[in-house]
Amino acid sequence: MSVNEQAVATTDELENGQMKQVTVGDTPVLLCKVDGDYYALGAKCTHYGAPLADGSLHGNQIFCPWHQAGFNVTNGDNNEPPAYDGLPTFPVQEKDGQVIVKVPDDAPGRRTMKMSHCNVQNDTRDFVIVGAGAAGEAAA
Amino acid sequence: MRQLGYEGRIFLITKEDRTPYDRPNLSKEYLSGDAPDEWMPLRGEDFYKKYDIELTRNRYVREIDIQKQEITFADSATQHYDELLIATGGVPRKLNIPGSDLENVFTLRSFDDADHIVNQVGKGKKAIVIGASFIGLETAASLRKQGLDVHVVAPETFLYEKLFGEEIGRWIQKKHEDNGVKFSLGSTVAKLESNDGEVKGVSLKNGETLDADIVLVGIGVKPVTDFIKGLSLESDGGAKVDHFLMAADHVYAAGDIAWFPYWRNDQSVRIEHWRLAQQHGRIAAHNMLGKQIPYKSIPFFWTSQGSVTLNYLGHAKDWDDLMIDGNIKEDDFMAYFIKNNEVAAVATPNREKQLAAIHHLMILDKMPGSAKIRDHAFDPVETLQKI
Description:
The complex is a heterodimer. By secondary structure, chain A is mainly beta. In chain A, 4% of the residues lie in helices and 41% in strands. In chain A, the strands form three sheets. In chain A, strands 2-3-4-9 form a four-stranded antiparallel β-sheet, with no helix packed on it. Chain A has a four-stranded antiparallel β-sheet with strand order 5-6-7-8, with no helix packed on it. Chain A has a three-stranded antiparallel β-sheet with strand order 1-11-10, with no helix packed on it. By secondary structure, chain B is an alpha/beta fold. Chain B has a five-stranded parallel β-sheet, with helices on one face. A five-stranded antiparallel β-sheet of chain B has the order 23-24-27-26-25. Chain B is globular and about 55 Å long. Chain B starts with 8 loop residues before the first strand and ends with a helix. Chains A and B meet through strand 12 and helix 1 of A and strand 1, strand 6, helix 7, helix 8 and helix 10 of B.
């Protein structure tokens, strides 16, 4: 697996709350600036693939332009549906006035959020969800 | 609940024969033949196994006894629960007129419903859609895309007049007409005509008859709650919940069935949209685990109408005034639905960046009053930047 390392912006290019889509290797990457720091993430919404750069960023919260899925851009976590997977995040380094992003060649466009497993030694409760539509699935 | 670290057992029970799927797409790309089967499941089958979510399919609940904290299934087996989420959604309302049970008269709610329609599409030429609901009109557009002649019959004069107003209703109608969909508005169906048990057309109350090989009935859904014992229900069958989506001790209700207090105006509302149900599911999960998290998000839905998609953010049960910024005829506008001088909801087919900015502003409670919008002095993106 090779990693593409690329300068994608100058360090003063974005203001806080601004973002832009760049390409590293073949991967579209969303570059955001929050509280003086740059963050690099997958550029496409994990719901239907909208370009998140066309959405709205405020603080660390981004909303997708198509169906209002929400993500925290500092860690890529999904926090509003209809998406449920998080965005991949990529290492960012500021060096000599340049913002440098490292993206592996085969970077996936989504990642499953961190989840627990069942362990009845720790928790003996039974939770039941009747109905496996939008609400039921999201609750599980 | 697994994302929140819960380690007890989770039983996810469905009467259907499938893993959870992308329901909004059924009436849209799936029905128009543009969505391959692999787009439809939300997650792979192995996901539920991997995270110990005990998905049980083809399982019918006969009764839930709130006092006993017990579920009885159709085969009389019982199961105790410590916490319960009722997320049973709705069943399509049926027409109560002669001929409603004929072959090739469909409703659309489940994946199987969509497949039944898809299987019939190649065999018929003419479709009639009864009801100008979201399901009705999205189905009309998808069947038209499949090459069928499509005729919509509905009692209202303008599409979605109560929800979107006359002007947007006319615009939506024109989008469908431009695609070749025909309308009989202000019309009520008296009877479905039979040809040896199969539907062959509909008779309207005004005496007119229309030929059909397929009839789709899209006149809304009814909450599925009739199996709950010990919970008083609203007149429409919905279940009243508090800010935390709790309906009774150890019982939560979410999605289409839930009458919940909407935090922006404290009105009790019931909203039948996909994304809201997902939001509810997440909130209910927190609260089943003992947190006290109220629903404080913004409802949103999207609907495909002919060649356009309308995106609607917020919620206006009714509104006093509708202000439109932009030009409806050119498909470029933001509609503001005003209630008590405040923006209760907005709708747009194209202004995506503005819409996402308004989402932030609504959450931050920083939307301007109606005067600023009337003066066209509101730029959502700029306003957000200044906060």
